[in-house]
Amino acid sequence: xxxxxxxxxxxxxxxTFALEPELIERIGAVAPGRIEIEILGQDQRxxxxxxxxxxxxxxxxxxxxxxxxxxxxxxxFGFWGPELHTALVAASKHPADTLSLAxxxxxxxxxxxxxxxxxxxxxxxxxxxxxxxxxxSGLHATPIGEFVISSILMFAKGAPQYMRAQLRHEWSRxxxxxxxxxxxGIVGFGHIGAEVGRLAxxxxxxxxxxxxxxxxxxxxxxxxxxxxxxxxxxxxAESDYVVLSMPLTPQTRxxxxxxxxxxxxxNAVLVNIARGAVVVEADLVRALEEHTIAGAALDVFESExxxxxxxxxDMENVIVSPHISGGTAIYNDRAVSIFSENLRRYIAxxxxxNVVDPARGY
Length: 362
Fold this sequence. Notes:
Elements: E1 11-15, H1 21-28, E2 35-39, H2 42-48, H3 56-72, E3 75-78, H4 82-92, H5 101-104, E4 110-113, H6 119-122, E5 132-134, H7 141-156, H8 159-167, E6 183-187, H9 191-202, E7 206-211, E8 225-228, H10 232-238, E9 241-244, H11 258-263, E10 269-272, H12 281-289, E11 295-298, E12 318-320, H13 331-348
Parallel strand pairs: 1-2, 1-3, 3-4, 4-5, 6-7, 6-9, 7-8, 9-10, 10-11, 11-12
Helix pairs in contact: 1-13, 3-4, 7-9
């Protein structure tokens, strides 16, 4: 059945990020004449990205425009973050703890996120009332898979050592390690985890992975062995490289702390492309300082941007990247492809792909 209340009414789509004109046209072409697209202006996007404004009055005006756009929207296509939540609360004139969906977006039925995770939206405190939330799960598998393998190779071949030596103009030779024969443990064997596994096996690695939804006897061509989430300790003890690729949920927050780091091999490297909060950062810093583990490649952090005072910046056994592992020049193109297919399904009344289960958090 058609999702719109009136078959003659247009479906109003609000886009909350900058998008190329040809991609906007592609969205409209899903159902010509039946879709009305509204795009937030530059001022609203600046607000959502946390830019400072010269006056509170200007910020209120921008937030008001944002609120009006959400009042009209049936579908939102974009990201969700603290700036957006704060702006909507401010514009609604309601206390944050009593804010309801009806106050913010009375027509809203569906939010299509441009991220694979929904943790920021689900922790906003006011998305309720049966709104469907979908993600772009699967979009990041290729870029993040490549990023993880590049990070693993950098440690195997000693890139942190020779790049720092280059800055010091030092000719300091050493024996790199081979990746062949190493064990890569993947915590969270979803789309991204499976792609990391596929690439690691191509290098001759043994691959083991944990899945929260593990079914007894389950196998994968991208892993030598799959384990239930409860066998994390075994994965940590057996892996030369531990890759974190699970979603951030109440169950995974702080999952890797001092106890888990102590289970890892002294020569092991931790690679985190999940969320910073799945690791207790202070415990990780201590483990790196004491060489409990050999190193860490970190693309996500408890606080982003990573504070300039963080000791992680200057550690010789750490590679810091600014949350770019999922980036690709064709990101918007892929996100629009996922959204357009879901939009076609929405209009036709068919089930959507990548629907978030609030109870699981992803």
